[in-house]
Amino acid sequence: MSATRIEDERRHVDLSRELISLWTGLFKAVRLYEQANDSVESQCSRIRELALALMNDSGELELTVRRDSIFVGRLRIKQGAMGSTAYPRLIALLCTAGISSVILDEDVENWEIELFARISIATADARSEPAEMKNQLERRGVQHLTVQIGQMDEPLAEELTADQLARRIYLNSIGVVKGVFQELKTSNRLSARRVKRVVMEMVDSLDRDPGFLMSLTRLKNYDEYTFNHSVNVSVLSIALGRHLQLQRNELSIVGQAGMFHDLGKLCVPKEVLNKPGRLTPEERLIIQSHSAEGFVEIAAKLGASHETIEVALAAFEHHANHDGSGYPRAALTREKGLLSEIVSIVDRYDAMTSARVYRSNPIPPQKALAIMYHSQAAQFDATLLRYFMNLMGYYPLGTTVRLADNSVAVVVGGSAEPELRHFPKVQLVLDPDGRPASGHTIDLAATAKDDEPLAVMETLDALDYGIEAMDYIL
Ligand SMILES: [Fe+2]
Ligand SMILES: [Fe+2]
Q: How far is the CA of 97 from the centre of ligand 1 (A)?
């Protein structure tokens, strides 16, 4: 570790210890004093100052309690020479109130800090439901301080394997999308921060190991299609963006564009959105309005910024095709931006491979890729589509395949060598005679140079074989 990093870390620890003492002091002070008290006010100011000094690149500071430790940002702060009882008292108080973390953002105001302290104390004293505390904070207009509840015993990120962490990020982001979409119905402003946070976690997870998080996009939840689909489109858009070597800040925007691209569907009545039969022309128009509605909602509620406009445009343009087909008409006349191109391709792929009310059998990934590449190529940007095919590999994880010896297997990994990517790693499901196989994994690439390589002959529909692809991947 370089000398400056050691110095930075030491400073972080010192400020964090001061912050811990201040929080404990504030909780005590709000018990003693009513509102508009000087001592409470000055503690809130100092907490705010310290939080600003400790914030990460995205302008946030998270204080987390896990078991017997407090984390400030990503760093575990040891009690060390704090020489007081502030540390254990803060843990005890937050745990009693059911709070596992508090996140302050750069716009946080003193009154929000004070109100949070008062509500937390009341929650801890009355042992009331932590969820109610979250509601109260929202009702009273606290926007720049978020609490997370009830995960004190969850393992720390550093204790998880990359796969477990990716799984947690994926499931957590579905919860976040759901929350944000629901918030839209009641609020005039959307806080994009939570979405940004999970998007950056996805970017990091894809940096560590792109395969696993991408494979999770095959977990399709039919009941909660829109939320699931939004997260899938986000993950795959980031993955495609990485493949195109976009910068981290661009990946953040592309990930948000994926999350929000169908936000306008909230404006479409459920009966129309989930109608199993054929749509009337009027109903089709209502569904099609979701791109323009999405644009308006995002532009109006996400706050004006360069990022917001890009995200809103992706929502506006994601059904406008290159060959002039699609909608809305206004989007067809202008050249689409890169983000919209990425989201369009990924959106189509995820929609095709998902079960829907009007199509109970999803199209297998391989077939969906083939349809996009052969029949729909004119609708997309040709270069990006090629990049996408290349990214997804010939046989995406979880694809059910028949091998040259007639056995049936599920693709569980790609080949390390690009020129052998049509020889993936597979796990056997049925032997050549159709009997359940031992389930061992074979690297087909190892047979590529044999006289009779164990090649993939065709992709199969997993449903026909009663195969739950995710059982093999998770
Ligand atoms: Fe859409
Ligand atoms: Fe979509």
A: 40
Q: 390 C-alpha vs ligand 1 centroid, how far in Å?
A: 24
**Ligand with smallest separation from the Cα of 331:** 1
Distance 261 CA to ligand 2 centre (A): 6
Instruction: Give the closest ligand to the alpha carbon of residue 227.
Output: 2
CATH of domain 162-392: 1.10.3210.10
* Highest averaged pLDDT of the listed ranges 12-26, 61-75, 359-373, 389-403: 12-26
Predicted local distance difference test score (pLDDT) of residue 312: 95
What is the secondary structure of 299-359 as a DSSP string?
HHHS-SSHHHHHHHHHHHHTTB-TTS-BS-HHHHTSPPPHHHHHHHHHHHHHHHTS-BTTB
Max alpha carbon distance in the chain (Å)?
84
Q: How far is the CA of 232 from the centre of ligand 2 (A)?
A: 10
Ligand 1 midpoint to CA 226 (Å): 9
d(CA 63, CA 372): 46
For 168-194, how does the pLDDT look when each residue is reduced to its tens digit (9 = 90+)?
A: 889 888 888 888 888 777 777 777 788
- DSSP state, 70? E
Q: Distance from the CA of 339 to the center of ligand 1, in angstroms?
A: 14
Contacts of 246 (CB under 8 A, 6+ apart): 254
Mean pLDDT across 250-267: 94
pTM of the full structure: 0.75
Ligand positioned closest to the Cα atom of 259: 2
The Å distance, Cα 389 to ligand 2 centre, comes to 19
Give me ligand 1 centre to Cα 14, in Å: 49
Domain boundary assignment for the chain: 3-158, 162-392, 400-473
Mean pLDDT along residues 232-249: 95
* 109 Cα–ligand 2 center, Å: 37
Backbone angles phi, psi at 72, to 5 degrees: -120, 115
Ligand nearest to the CA of 290: 1
Gap between the Cα atoms of 196 and 330, Å rounded: 29
Q: Which residues contact 278 (CB under 8 A, 6 or more apart)?
A: none
Ligand lying nearest the CA atom of residue 320: 1
pLDDT confidence tier of residue 80, bands split at 50, 70 and 90: confident
Could you report the per-residue pLDDT of 370-410, keeping only the tens digit for each?
Answer: 788 778 889 999 889 988 988 887 677 778 889 989 999 99
